[in-house]
């Protein structure tokens, strides 16, 4: 079935699903049953609303955000172009329903920044004070703020004369405000969630946001929900057991039941262990009684585990309303100093209930958030968003927050490097192999070409006469550059391990107890870069060949043979990766063939905005540790229209050093791999992953069967685990595999103090055929406290054998009913339809 046909198929069954899900909520969990099926919009924008444009370069209607705000009427949208805006922005109460939207969909592209502190002198006398220091003050009700970064750049070190160092990035002061995919960055008092009248109804919903700071950096008296947020506590250098700071400082009025809720989120920090408090009670008035709940949230070792809350201004934390529930990670604790909600009480402290207020407000269908997961239920409410995003009434994930379309090669070619080699095979002369002849001239072109303005430039590798080959050692692609390969051109990687050697590390091309001895063949450094190729009408496109199957110079083994020896001897192979992109925002792989990598093919580490489109990876299933594409600590990733054949994970989404979120894998095909995977490193969390319209075949194009053929997989363990949430698999077809589905919190028997916790996992539309005779799926939660939360809808597998434990599963029209210790299955009656499947042959490269 084509991707288009599968989408139509999903849409045709959506109405049936919505009705069925309504019945499911009545069955699963009393809290969810009481919630409305459909949620209202966040604002009531009038029909005459306009869109005003802002661009710092003058290409919009306004050059500053404040000028557009001044001109806007209630309900208007302000679209802000890529750029950094050095200004203070104030949206008054009269501009109700106003939307401020970053035009690119990437919050890092659109930055509003200023540097006032509470003690900064005002023109005309006095100082700004805490609230007045804000870079952005949004006072209007019904506002939507999306895809923006708001920072306060004040530096205490640069201004030692200013002792009042509170420096607010955002001062949010309106009811029914929505913040979606935004970033708020500061140090002390980064984000103020404020109700000008302490007893008034003031609700603010922060969804999929990033908040960074150190002292009381989420504070105020509003009812504020942080849902699937990434909260980063800055390392200010305190030694283990010392004090870096405090995450929250709420001053909720005693008349309000709800203050701050941090739910399904990830707190991350590189700070030393036991140096951060979850919060302290701010008590500026006699009626302030702080209320904060951290629930279902991953906490780092930096949190003071033995005593996560502390006193403030003479007021005891024990007099406040501080609670936790089902948190995970090295910083999570259950002890006398860490009050825990009971399961019954947790049902009253959900995203939906915090936001509902007196008018039932439910932005983005928040009735399906944490509320549906309480009291042992794993159901998710059906909402218009869920029903339209991919056509699934069960799916919660939305994937990449950007609007992603097929890339285009850069219009500007800065330099062309022509081939001088005419190869008849895949090796060259001994002299060329020892000293690759093209390294210096390609790197020279890359070094000399710099980005001009906002346009990306290309360095093109072109065929010349009978030559269409290049032989090179490691190369670096810089900011704003694309390495562009002409159709039919092949860039071959050096076989000389000395070319890749990393100083101070084990010798590249050898086995050792250590690792990291080799740099990557292609390293990408800086934003707006790419590795792309020209695709001819015949389908031929440029290729990069890592030659992992060929002998390492000076040895008698290949790179792949070395990897096999490492497994046999329980050592590490020091092999180079093919492509490594580090903190390279807006990185693009387009129409390029990647062959025979000695190690992982593509690692995208620590960036925001990665598109892989039309990528064809071809490495046999027998080549160990040759992952296809690995986003790690990454945000906003799309992998589309790609063919991936490797000897390990086809895709492996990792959340080790930093959280990964907003990832889409779609319209792609996998051959002989270990499947479409998340993990095994999930320490910092993985969330909002949408996997749709993909096929997985357990054998490669050469007929090799994968030793670990899996369809879809989430894998982790207490050795490197963390929270994985909101992952939706839509219309997946698998064949010839040993394990159609694997959700395993005990992967490889790893041991340690981390907590792997998989929740909000949805498989909607899944078929397996021709599975191996011993095929078996795995559904293994960690424990009764951290069960696997899973929905199986429209599932037809040809083998129902499974190993299951500690799982809460809802099924809808599924022939797979897991059973085992601690497994609860709620079957929702109904008639759906599983996807019909066809498996395309791997393209002839």
TrEMBL record:
Catalytic residues as annotated in Swiss-Prot or TrEMBL: 216
Superkingdom of the organism of origin: Bacteria
Pfam families from the UniProt entry: Glyco_hydro_28, Pectinesterase
InterPro entries noted in UniProt: Glyco_hydro_28 (IPR000743), PbH1 (IPR006626), Pectin_lyas_fold (IPR012334), Pectin_lyase_fold/virulence (IPR011050), Pectinesterase_Asp_AS (IPR033131), Pectinesterase_cat (IPR000070), TAT_signal (IPR006311)
Keywords: Aspartyl esterase, Glycosidase, Hydrolase
Protein name (Swiss-Prot/TrEMBL): Pectinesterase family protein
Gene3D superfamilies referenced in this protein's UniProt entry, alphabetically: Single-stranded right-handed beta-helix, Pectin lyase-like (2.160.20.10)
Family stated for the protein in its record: Belongs to the glycosyl hydrolase 28 family. Belongs to the pectinesterase family.
Domain annotation Pectinesterase catalytic: ranges: 52-357
């Amino acid at each position: 079935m084509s991707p288009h046909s599968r989408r139509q198929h999903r849409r045709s069954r959506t109405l049936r699903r919505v009705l069925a899900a309504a019945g499911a909520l009545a069955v699963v969990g009393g809290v969810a049953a009481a919630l409305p099926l459909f949620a209202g919009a966040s604002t009531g924008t009038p029909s005459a609303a306009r869109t005003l444009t802002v661009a710092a370069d003058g290409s919009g209607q306004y050059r500053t955000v404040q000028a557009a705000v001044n001109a806007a009427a209630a309900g208007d949208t302000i679209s802000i172009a890529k750029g950094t805006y050095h200004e203070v922005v104030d949206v008054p109460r009269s501009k109700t329903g106003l939307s401020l939207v970053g035009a690119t969909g990437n919050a890092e592209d659109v930055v509003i920044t200023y540097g006032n502190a509470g003690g900064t002198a005002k023109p005309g006398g006095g100082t700004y004070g805490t609230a007045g220091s804000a870079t952005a003050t949004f006072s209007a009700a019904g506002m939507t703020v999306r895809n923006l970064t708001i920072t306060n750049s004040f530096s205490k070190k640069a201004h030692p004369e200013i002792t009042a160092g509170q420096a607010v990035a955002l001062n949010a002061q309106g009811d029914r405000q929505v913040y979606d995919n935004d970033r708020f960055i500061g140090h002390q008092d980064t984000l103020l969630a404020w109700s000008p009248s302490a007893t008034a109804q003031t609700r603010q919903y922060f969804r999929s946001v990033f908040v960074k700071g150190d002292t009381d950096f989420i504070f105020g008296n509003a009812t504020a929900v942080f849902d699937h947020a990434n909260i980063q506590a800055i390392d200010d250098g305190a030694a283990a057991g010392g004090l870096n700071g405090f995450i929250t400082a709420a001053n909720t009025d005693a008349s309000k039941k709800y203050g701050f809720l941090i739910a399904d989120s990830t707190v991350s920090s590189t700070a030393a262990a036991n140096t951060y408090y979850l919060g302290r009670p701010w008590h500026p008035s006699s009626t302030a009684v702080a209320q904060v709940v951290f629930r279902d949230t991953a906490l780092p070792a930096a949190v003071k585990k033995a005593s996560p809350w502390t006193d403030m201004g003479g007021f005891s934390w024990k007099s406040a309303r501080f609670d936790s529930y089902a948190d995970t990670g090295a910083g999570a604790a259950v002890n006398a100093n860490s009050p825990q909600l009971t399961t019954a009480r947790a049902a009253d402290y959900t995203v939906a209930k915090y936001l509902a207020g007196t008018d039932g407000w439910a932005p983005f269908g928040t009735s399906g958030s944490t509320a549906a997961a309480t009291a042992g239920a794993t159901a998710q409410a059906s909402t218009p968003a869920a029903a339209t995003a991919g056509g699934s009434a069960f799916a919660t994930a939305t994937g990449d927050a950007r609007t992603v379309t097929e890339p285009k090669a850069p219009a500007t070619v800065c330099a062309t490097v022509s081939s001088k080699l005419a190869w008849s095979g895949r090796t060259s002369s001994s002299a060329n192999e020892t000293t690759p002849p093209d390294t210096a001239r390609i790197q020279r072109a890359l070094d000399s070409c710099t980005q001009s303005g906002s346009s990306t430039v290309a360095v093109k590798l072109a065929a010349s006469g009978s030559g269409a080959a290049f032989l090179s050692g490691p190369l670096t692609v810089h900011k704003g550059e694309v390495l562009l390969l002409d159709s039919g051109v092949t860039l071959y990687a050096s076989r000389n391990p000395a070319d890749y050697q990393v100083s101070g590390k084990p010798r590249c091309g050898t086995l050792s107890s250590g690792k990291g001895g080799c740099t990557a063949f292609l390293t990408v450094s800086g934003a707006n870069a790419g590795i792309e190729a020209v695709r001819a009408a015949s389908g031929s496109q440029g290729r990069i060949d890592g030659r992992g199957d060929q002998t390492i110079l000076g040895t008698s083994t290949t790179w792949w043979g070395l990897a096999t020896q490492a497994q046999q001897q329980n050592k590490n192979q020091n092999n180079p990766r093919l492509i490594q992109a580090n903190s390279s925002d807006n990185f693009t792989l387009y129409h390029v063939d990647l062959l025979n990598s000695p190690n992982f093919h593509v690692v995208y580490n620590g960036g925001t905005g990665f598109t892989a489109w039309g990528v064809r990876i071809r490495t046999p299933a027998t080549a160990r540790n040759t992952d296809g594409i690995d986003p790690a600590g990454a945000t906003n990733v799309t992998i589309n229209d790609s063919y991936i054949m490797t000897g390990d994970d086809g895709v492996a989404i990792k959340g080790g050093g930093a959280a990964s979120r907003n990832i889409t894998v779609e319209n792609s095909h996998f051959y002989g791999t270990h499947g479409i995977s998340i993990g095994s490193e999930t320490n910092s969390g993985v969330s909002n992953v949408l996997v749709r319209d993909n096929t997985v075949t357990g054998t490669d194009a050469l007929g090799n069967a994968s030793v670990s053929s899996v369809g879809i997989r989430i894998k982790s363990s207490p050795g490197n685990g963390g929270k994985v949430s909101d992952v939706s698999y839509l219309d997946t077809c698998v064949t010839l595999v040993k394990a159609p589905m694997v959700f395993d919190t005990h992967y490889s028997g790893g041991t340690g103090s981390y907590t792997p916790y998989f929740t909000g996992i949805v498989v909607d539309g899944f078929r397996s055929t021709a599975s191996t005779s011993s095929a078996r799926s795995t559904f293994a939660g960690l424990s009764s406290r951290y069960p696997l939360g899973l929905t199986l809808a429209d599932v037809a597998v040809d083998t129902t054998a499974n190993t299951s434990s500690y799982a809460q599963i809802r099924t809808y029209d599924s022939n797979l009913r897991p059973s085992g210790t601690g497994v609860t299955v709620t079957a929702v009656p109904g008639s759906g339809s599983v996807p019909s499947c066809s498996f395309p042959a791997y393209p002839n490269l």
